[in-house]
TrEMBL record:
InterPro entries attached to this UniProt entry: GAF-like_dom_sf, HTH_MetabolicPath_Reg, Tscrpt_reg_IclR_C, Tscrpt_reg_IclR_N, WH-like_DNA-bd_sf, WH_DNA-bd_sf
Keyword flag Transcription regulation: yes
Residue ranges of every copy of the HTH iclR-type domain listed in the record: 16-78
GO biological process: negative regulation of DNA-templated transcription
Domain named IclR-ED: residues: 79-265
UniProt entry keywords in alphabetical sequence: DNA-binding, Transcription, Transcription regulation
Transmembrane segments: none
Protein name listed in UniProt: HTH-type transcriptional repressor AllR
Organism: wastewater metagenome
Gene designation per UniProt: allR
GO MF annotation, one: DNA-binding transcription factor activity
Any Pfam family matching the protein: IclR_C
């Protein structure tokens, strides 16, 4: 009899193997003439008939494949097209956002980062450096935890409730500094504050001595795809920080067309005008 740990390991391995088979099945369908006939799919994929039927059914349920109503057979589905579009958006994002990043740096005098989500972290994909001699030390490719960063909290706050619930279960909530929010209820409260203000604040939660202000960026489908932030040394913050830092982020991103509101919302998540309040 297998121990519970061994059973979990075996189940995970089987799940991973099924996932890989599903991906390879999609590749097989993509390589075949359209629409892909069932017998051709089976020949190309080399899957047993029962496995093939099961995987096709699962992929069809999730709209990764669809049946051709006129000719029979299978076509790649709209969900793949949506994912491909989101991928292209992220690839193009540094280019399309560059002008806004420079404008934010020029307006604030501070370092500006553009970050995209990867699992439970945000990855810096572009950066415009402050010209000041004392500034945040970072580089493109660095990652920051979502729960402890302005870019991460801005992105999380912009998610639809069901998407946020999915992310919540994956967050590490590890303490990066003494100020880091490490409990899920406290994080949800913090995200409500982000929505009310229209921007996120990292009050020395990721790095001591550094305060950051973040704004979510949206794709053409109204879903958050990235976030931009300004990073300020605490000693340089001043009393007018809401107008000095949070305001220019929104102004520049709005001018660049990066704040598309979600469908059905005149003023979607993260889209409210910057409102003053303590970090």
């Amino acid at each position: 009899m297998s121990a519970p740990g061994q059973q979990d390991s075996t189940s995970s391995a089987r799940g991973a193997a099924t996932f890989v088979k599903g991906l390879r099945l999609l590749q097989s369908i993509a390589a075949l003439p359209r629409p892909a006939r069932l017998k051709d799919i089976q020949r190309a994929s080399a899957l047993p008939r029962a496995t093939l039927y099961r995987l096709l059914g699962a992929l069809e349920d999730e709209r990764f494949v669809v049946r051709d109503p006129l000719h029979g057979g299978y076509l790649l589905g709209p969900e793949l097209a949506r994912l491909g579009h989101r991928s292209r958006e992220q690839d193009d994002l540094p280019h399309s956002a560059r002008e806004a990043l420079v404008a934010i740096r020029d307006a604030t005098g501070e370092t500006v980062h553009l970050a995209v989500p990867r699992g439970d972290v945000m990855i810096y994909v572009d950066k415009v450096e402050s010209l000041a001699s004392v500034r945040m030390a970072s580089m493109v490719g660095n990652q920051v935890h979502m729960h402890a960063s302005a870019v991460g909290k801005a992105f999380l706050a912009a998610l639809a409730p069901e998407a946020l619930d999915r992310y919540a279960g994956t967050l590490s909530l590890a303490p990066m500094t003494a100020n880091t929010v490490t409990g899920l209820p406290a994080l949800r409260t913090a995200l409500e504050t982000v929505r009310a203000r229209g921007y996120a604040v990292d009050d020395e939660e990721n790095e001591p001595g550094i305060v950051c202000f973040g704004q979510a960026l949206y794709g053409v489908d109204g879903q958050p795809v990235a976030a931009v932030s300004v990073s300020v040394p605490r000693y340089r913050l001043g009393d007018d920080w809401a107008h000095r830092y949070a305001g220019p982020i929104r102004t520049a991103c709005e001018a660049a067309g990066l704040l598309t509101a979600p469908p059905g919302h005149e003023d979607g998540p993260g889209q409210r005008r910057a409102r003053p309040g303590p970090p």
